[in-house]
Amino acid sequence: MPDLLWDDVRWFFDPGVMGSLPDVCVPGASLEDWQSVLDLVVAQDWPFQYSEGAAVLPLPAAAAVLSRPAGAECPELRVRPSVDVLAIFRFYAANEIDFDVDLRELQGQERLDVFCGFLTAIGRCLGKAVLMDSEGGDGSHPVLGFDVEADCVVVMAEPPVR
User: What angle, rounded to 10 degrees, do the helices at 109-126 and 31-43 form?
Assistant: First the structure.
């Protein structure tokens, strides 16, 4: 049985409600957590591309990425947990793992299941919550996310009133 049913959460995947690129994060992360996520991407054999500006480069260690000089361009890691689903990680800080997903790609039960599986893999790997907030949100009002105690993705907010 899926973690979430599309008909119950479709509101949270409406780009008009959440923005096209909602923010997903792992708060309270560490450099070691970042490295664990990079190792997970490789271990899961998810297709990925690491880049700094226009330069596509081999995937470095998290310590190298997060110790770049002030003012350096923020690196990006594009991960595809499936052909039709893209997560874009941005290395802003060691204490929070941030990534975006495109809600236009996350439509329907099949892709929702892929997304939930992706959040679950990261959450289980780290033993931490993985939370989705609206685009530009500050992370204080997640709508759904991986709950460590429940060991699955759960709804964390009521759908908007229409």
Answer: 130
Cβ atoms of residues 117 and 81 within 8 Å = yes
* Cβ pair 95, 113 in contact under 8 A: no
Give the number of other CB atoms < 10 A from CB of residue 23. Answer: 21
Q: How many CB atoms lie within 10 A of CB 70?
A: 4
CA–CA distance, 39 with 125 (Å, rounded to integer): 10
Q: Please give the Cα distance from 4 to 48 (Å, whole number).
A: 26
Distance, CA of 87 to CA of 78 (rounded, Å):
6
Condensed to tens digits (0 to 9), the pLDDT of residues 93-147 reads 999 999 999 999 999 999 999 999 999 999 999 999 999 998 887 777 899 999 9
Cα separation, 140 vs 23, whole angstroms: 11
123, 28 in Cβ contact below 8 A? no
Q: Please give the full DSSP string across 146-161, using - where no structure is assigned.
A: EETTTTEEEE-SPPPP
Which structure tokens are listed for 5? 């049913």
